[in-house]
Design brief:
Number of strands: 0
Oligomer: single chain
Order of helices and strands: HHHH
Strand content: under 5%
Number of helices: 4
Radius of gyration: 16 Å
Structural class: mainly alpha
Shape: globular
Number of domains: 1
Length: about 100
């Protein structure tokens, strides 16, 4: 995207993420994969405004690889998440809350 390693290292990051227990990794994955799917909608909208030549790599994978992971993730959630649903949901909510706090500072 044209930024140097030093510039990327200098970017602000969310530093107040809650602890993520092993049982909560599916909740964290839900947030990350879900946001990448939402980014596809943003990219589609921006393409109509900025045209096909605009670099939108900031929004993630334009080739749809993350979208292909979504059904795999859902199967894993169904198969492996039944016993830890409270932890999974609490982890996802904690990640959303941390991002909201960080972005609204």
């Amino acid at each position: 995207m044209g930024a140097s390693s030093k510039e990327v290292d200098a970017l602000e990051r969310c530093r107040n993420l809650p602890p993520i227990p092993a049982q909560g990794l599916l909740g964290y994955t839900y947030v990350i994969l879900g946001s990448s799917l939402g980014a596809r909608i943003i990219v589609k909208q921006l393409r109509t405004v900025l045209g096909p030549g605009a670099s939108l790599q900031f929004y993630g994978d334009e080739k749809g690889r993350y979208a292909a992971l979504w059904p795999v993730f859902l199967r894993s959630l169904e198969e492996n998440g039944r016993h830890d649903i409270r932890t999974i949901c609490a982890t996802a909510a904690g990640i959303f809350d941390a991002y909201e706090t960080w972005l609204c500072q």
